[in-house]
Amino acid sequence: MSDPMRPRASLRTAVVWEVLKDALDHKVKATGSDALDVLDTGGGTGNFAVPVARLGHRVTVVDPSPNALFALERRAAEAGVADRVRGVQGDIHGLFDVVDRGGHDVVLCHGVLEYVDDPAEGVRNAVDALRPSGVLSLLAAGLGGAVLARALAGHFTEARQALTDPAGRWGEGDPVPRRFTAEQLTGLVGAAGVEVAAVHGVRVFADLVPGALVDTEPGALDALLKLEAAAAELPAFHSVASQLHVLGQKREPGDG
């Protein structure tokens, strides 16, 4: 498995990475260019940006945290891709203060929508940063996964609160400001002019399995990774995933 997929961390990123890598490969073939222009909004320390740059692509990371961008710079240098990774301070709402509109082949919007005031505007800006037929990779917190996790922990009132709360929050102590269903995310993406290609449930089982079992049982990590990959595309599991990943393509001008 590729670089960003270290044990344990791989459970959080493997499904998205494999889908993204395939999308990048397809985009390379479609454009005839080995090096794509990739924008990673909220890309932080480069969990995806650095591996994408290792594939030969040019990556711009927009993040509001100077500390994260400093760590990104160091990480890119250590990986030997400093010449292909650029970090700029900013956020999705002020995106075009720091990057060009319509200048990217691929835009990653991972872990951003949960924290913005206006998710619809955030998605529109991400899409507006794409060239025609550009690829959008959107990852956000899933409502069902949080409800299930609270219930299995014995916090039944909090589980019910998350289920009925408009933002999907289980209480004042909830660190995530907003969660989504698959239907909400595909609706936002479709309204912004993107044709949805695939929806994946991410961390369907990983957050529910005891860490000690995965770390100590021979072969457990690999088996769990395969289970996650097998369940990711099945709609039945989207409603209980900790995160939801939507992959889509920007419609050409004049398309429906």
Automatic annotation (TrEMBL):
Domain of life: Bacteria
GO biological process terms on file: methylation
Classification via SUPFAM superfamilies: S-adenosyl-L-methionine-dependent methyltransferases
All copies of domain Methyltransferase type, residue ranges: 39-136
Stretch forming the signal peptide: none
Pfam families for the chain: Methyltransf_12 (PF08242)
This protein's UniProt keywords: Methyltransferase, S-adenosyl-L-methionine, Transferase
MF (Gene Ontology): methyltransferase activity
PANTHER family tied to this protein: METHYLTRANSFERASE, UBIQUINONE BIOSYNTHESIS O-METHYLTRANSFERASE, MITOCHONDRIAL
Entry protein name: Methyltransferase
Source organism: Streptomyces enissocaesilis
